[in-house]
Amino acid sequence: MIKGLGTALITPFNADGSVDYQALTRLLDTQLTGFIDYIVVLGTTGEAATLTADEKREVRQFIVKYVNGCLPLVLGVGGNNTAQVISDLQALKDELIQDYAAILSVCPYYNKPNQEGLFQHFCKVAEASPIPVILYNVPGRTGVNLLPETVMRIYAAHPDKVVGIKEASGNLVQIKDLIEKSKKSKVSKLLVISGDDGIACEVMEAGGAGLISVASNAFPEDFWHIVHEKDQVKQKKYAEMIRLLFAEGNPVGIKAVLAQKGIIQNYLRLPLVPASKELQAQIQKELA
User: Phi, psi at residue 211, to the nearest 5°?
Assistant: First the structure.
């Protein structure tokens, strides 16, 4: 259910900072046209760190109701306080079982745990989660790199619960090493999912299981071809756009694109701010 193309969904806002549910409806409509295989709700791209608990609940409920079972949903549940993540999972138990295919849990950030700390953290997460777990390695955001050996330790300890990893280290050598280790594992194969739009084809050609994409918020059809057909030509076509999407951080770039396409308003929550005029001009030129 979580192979292929997954969209790391943004959260649209109004000028007053409230969640823009009309824009969220328009965005979801673009995701329900047959090109997206699953949606990741309230991940880092969704600015979950700046939403209150009540807002998160309302966004979750809105998306679940609107999607109405048409696509599998993955929920971002992570943090740098293991006890709090466990508490969150316990509080969400019934909702997770009813509405979600898996959780996506990011490496603890800021604390900078070593590999043993990461192993123990994710074992506790796996034990607490009532549904499958996708690990999320994104060293550029967290300051720590979940190494292939540690991933396989976690997987071996909880093969019934840990089903995959979103690998956004950008390190193809490391990603290919992880894929090879998972192939040789005595337990069933781990899903290694690209977390970088720009190297999706390379990851899949090495045996990866798809892409969790930022760009597919705005370009679902083209990224369906990139993922399902390993379309290197299209991926190269998007190289400059992908660079622009992340030039001033995520989701700054993708929100600028979506605003220019008329799907959302270009608002973010502090400490994030909209793309600079220069970047917006570059994006407009590249869109054209």
Answer: -145, 135
Looking at this protein, which amino acid is placed at residue 244? Answer: L
pLDDT per position as a tens digit, 173-228: 999 999 999 988 876 689 999 999 999 999 999 999 999 999 999 999 999 999 99
The residue from 56, 166, 234, 255 that is catalytic is: 166
pLDDT tens-digit series, residues 238-266: 999 999 999 999 999 999 999 999 999 99
Burial-class residue 288 by CB neighbours within 10 Å (0-12, 13-18, 19+). Answer: exposed
Does the CA dihedral 36-37-42-47 come out positive or negative? negative
155 is catalytic: no
Q: Which two tokens stand for residue 249?
A: 């951080």
Contact 240, 286 (CB under 8 A): yes
Task: Name the catalytic one among 100, 136, 155, 238.
Answer: 136
234 is catalytic: no
Report which secondary-structure segment, H or E, holds 150: helix 148-157
3-state secondary structure 160-220: CCEEEEEECCCCHHHHHHHHHHHHHCCCCCCEEEECCHHHHHHHHHCCCCEEEECHHHCCH
Which domains are assigned to the chain? 4-231 (3.20.20.70)
List of residues 6+ apart from 258 with CB closer than 8 A: 10, 12, 27, 217, 218, 264, 266
Burial 95-129 (b: 16+ CB within 10 A, else e): ebeebbbbbbbbbbbeeebeeebbbebbbebbebb
For residues 275 and 277, give the distance between their C-alpha atoms in angstroms, rounded to a whole number: 7
Q: What angle do CA 200, 205, 208 make, to 5 degrees?
A: 65
